[in-house]
Design a protein that fits this description.
With about 150 residues, this protein is of the alpha+beta class. The chain is built from two helices and nine strands. The protein has helices spanning about 10-40, 135-140, and strands spanning about 40-50, 55, 60, 65-70, 80-85, 90-100, 105-110, 115-120, 125-130.
Length: about 150
């Protein structure tokens, strides 16, 4: 480590040490922000359970993912349905997930807003994560073939 002393003693050395510490903290902060931006995806909310529920509201910007997982001991009797509800109007946006065996998946949504989920399950352990994406991540997302979101009949 380099040590610089002025004629008056250690005053200048303390000042240089403080400047160096400030610089290191600044560089570390910039690096952390760069890593966060590079990975982009962040969990907004996570819900877990074993039965029927309506979740608390969550706020997301578009694009975002609904990341779900279904498990349970009674493999032939499992069921999970996840409905997305617009919290401001109470209107059902659509069914995002329907599964009747242990499975997992993601569903991409383009529109942001304030939502909640209505989760219906039978003999199941489930987990649902709401993940915020960057526009770049959404462009790279390639969905597996699956049914469209079921929109309610009017």
């Amino acid at each position: 480590e380099m040590c610089i002393r002025d004629r008056a003693g250690t005053g200048r050395m303390k000042e240089l040490t403080a400047m160096r510490t400030t610089w290191i903290i600044g560089v570390a902060t910039v690096a952390l922000l760069a890593v966060t931006a590079a990975y982009g995806k962040s969990t907004v909310r996570e819900f877990r359970g074993t039965g029927n529920t309506e979740t608390a509201d969550f706020v997301v910007e578009g694009p975002w993912l609904l990341d779900w997982r279904l498990d349970g001991r009674y493999r032939n009797m499992l069921r999970l349905e996840v409905w997305v509800i617009d919290s401001s109007t109470g209107q059902v946006i659509g069914r995002a997930v329907r599964a009747d065996e242990p499975n997992n998946g993601v569903r991409l949504f383009e529109d942001g807003g304030t939502y909640r989920l209505r989760i219906s399950s039978t003999l199941a352990d489930w987990r649902v994560k709401i993940q915020q994406l960057t526009p770049e991540e959404a462009e790279q997302y390639t969905p597996k073939p699956q049914g469209p979101i079921l929109w309610p009949q009017r």
